[in-house]
Write a structure and sequence with these properties.
There is one protein chain. The chain is of the alpha+beta class. It has two domains: 108 residues, Sandwich (Immunoglobulin-like); 59 residues, Dockerin domain (Type 1 dockerin domain), CATH 1.10.1330.10. It is built from two helices and ten strands; from the N terminus they run ββββββββββαα. A four-stranded antiparallel beta sheet has the order 1-3-7-6, with no helix packed on it. A four-stranded mixed beta sheet has the order 2-10-8-5, with no helix packed on it. It is elongated and about 90 Å long.
């Protein structure tokens, strides 16, 4: 009788995945706007600005694309120097992450778009551009501060940041204090 031994070798053929989160704002005049890029199953991430493709409609454009972050789970893609009118979205090239078996991530995208407009907000505090300033606008700014994407113009005071100052300004407008 002969004893046979078998060696079973598993081969990892599953590449890492990459996903693009929603933009930090839904509407902007000049940005910046950020997108969180999430990697799963990656042992190395090499995402660089040249791996990010800008998808434009109309005359919308971004003069700068930057990437921040470390580790193997997430990166932040930031668009700045935004001009024009139309929409901007991003896609990520294939090969921006690998696992220890040499499997490369496929590309991702396009992302959800942001609207780029140079039209002035006709009514201060009218975040959703419905012609009214009310509790809905307050909630939209709160959502934007919490990182929940909203359409409209949550940067009510126009300082390039969406924060408690915008919430307070809309509350004051609703209460008639402004």
């Amino acid at each position: 009788m002969t004893d046979l031994a078998f060696l079973v070798v598993g081969v990892d053929e599953v590449p890492p995945t990459v996903a693009i989160g929603p933009p930090s704002v839904g509407v902007t005049e000049s940005g910046p706007v950020s997108f969180t890029v999430t990697y799963t199953g990656a042992d190395a991430v090499t995402l660089a600005p040249e791996d990010v493709q800008l998808i434009r409609t109309g005359t919308a454009d971004a003069s700068n694309i930057s990437v921040s972050g470390t580790g193997t789970a997430q990166r932040e893609v930031i668009l700045s120097g935004i001009t024009g009118e139309g929409t901007l979205a991003i896609s990520i090239d294939a090969g921006t992450a690998t696992d220890d078996s040499g499997n490369a991530a496929a590309g991702a995208g396009p992302s959800a778009p942001i609207t780029v407009t140079q039209e002035p907000n006709p009514l201060l505090g009218d975040v959703n551009l419905d012609g009214l300033v009310n509790a809905v606008d307050i909630q939209m700014v709160i959502n934007a501060v919490l990182g929940i994407p909203v359409s409209g113009r949550p940067d009510v005071n126009g300082d390039g940041q969406i924060n408690a100052l915008d919430i307070q300004l809309v509350i004051n407008i609703v209460l008639g204090a402004v």
